[in-house]
Structures are given as C-alpha cells and as structure tokens.
C-alpha cells in the first residue's frame, strides 16, 4: 500500500511544512495528565485551560519553542520529615505540548482556583489580490 502524502496531490503546492507539522503533532505523545480544555473565546482568540491543582505558579513554566506551546509542571517534593499513612496525591511532573499555527500568538497566563488559563490570539488574515501580467513570448 502506498502512503499518501500532501506532496502526492499536484494541486497542493508548498504544503510540505504542514505535513511535517502533522507528523510532529502525532508524535508529541501527550498523555492524559493534566486534563485540559480548549475553547474558542472569539473568532480570533482561544483559551487553553489545564487542571493543575497542587501546583503553584513557581512550579509551572510556559514557553514557545519552534511554534509549539510547551507547558511544564514540576512540584518540589516536600514530604521529607512527614509520615503519610496514605498518599493518594502524588507530586508528579508533566509536559503538555500544543502546536501553534502561523499567526497564533500566546497572550497572558492566569492561575485561578487550581486552573491555569493560557490565552491565544490569531492575527486577522489580510485579503490580498495579486494580478499577474502576461507577457508575449
């Protein structure tokens, strides 16, 4: 069986970057922790919300790396000197990656009631019409 790629279609020119983006997204390996929501807040803005109960602002890092929004969490282990009879709340680290389209910018991040909100905006696309002159050969 032949693998179909975007380059296999003669009418799709210059979409190689999109194909690499799709492959990178498929390989990102995000597990199910922490749970998150993505909502569209207007025609050109979005909000990602992660459930990060137990994490403080200093335990979280938000970066943009090669058109990817990367959110990392690492809690410090403060259990030294404490005796747990049951430990069901684990201090664990995570990394969540979201691939950003061209023109999407990361705005502010807000921590509220154990939820981390990250706002994104997409630039309004300009309508461009270009006329190409035909020369006689």
- How far is the N terminus from the C terminus? 44 Å
CATH architectural type of the largest domain: Sandwich
What does the main sheet amount to? 4 strands, antiparallel
Q: What's the average pLDDT?
A: 85
Low-confidence stretches at least 5 residues in length (pLDDT < 50)? none
**Helix coverage percent:** under 10%
Q: How many separate domains?
A: 2
Number of distinct beta strands:
7
Please report which band the strand proportion falls in: under 5%, 5-15%, 15-25%, 25-35%, 35-45% or over 45%.
35-45%
Strand order, largest beta sheet: 1-2-7-6
Structural class: mainly beta
Task: Please name the CATH topology of the largest domain.
Answer: Immunoglobulin-like
Structural overview:
The structure is a single chain. A 4-stranded antiparallel β-sheet has the order 1-2-7-6, with no helix packed on it. It is mainly beta. The protein has one helix at 16-26; strands spanning 36-42, 45-51, 60-65, 68-73, 94-99, 104-112, 115-122. The protein has 2 domains: 1-29, no CATH class; 31-122, Sandwich (Immunoglobulin-like). The protein is 8% helix and 36% strand.
Please give the structural blueprint.
Blueprint: H1 16-26, E1 36-42, E2 45-51, E3 60-65, E4 68-73, E5 94-99, E6 104-112, E7 115-122
Antiparallel strand pairs: 1-2, 2-7, 3-4, 4-5, 6-7
């Amino acid at each position: 069986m032949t693998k179909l790629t975007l380059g296999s279609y003669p009418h799709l020119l210059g979409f190689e970057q999109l194909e690499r983006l799709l492959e990178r997204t498929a390989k990102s390996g995000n597990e199910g922790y922490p749970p998150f929501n993505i909502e569209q807040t207007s025609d050109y803005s979005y909000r990602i919300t992660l459930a990060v109960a137990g994490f403080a602002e200093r335990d979280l890092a938000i970066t943009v790396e090669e058109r990817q929004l990367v959110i990392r969490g690492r809690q410090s282990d403060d259990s030294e000197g404490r005796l747990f009879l049951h430990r069901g709340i684990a201090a664990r680290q995570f990394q969540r990656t979201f691939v950003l389209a061209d023109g999407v910018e990361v705005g502010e991040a807000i921590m509220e009631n154990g939820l981390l909100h990250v706002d994104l905006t997409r630039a309004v696309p300009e309508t461009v019409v270009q006329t190409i002159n035909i020369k006689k050969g």
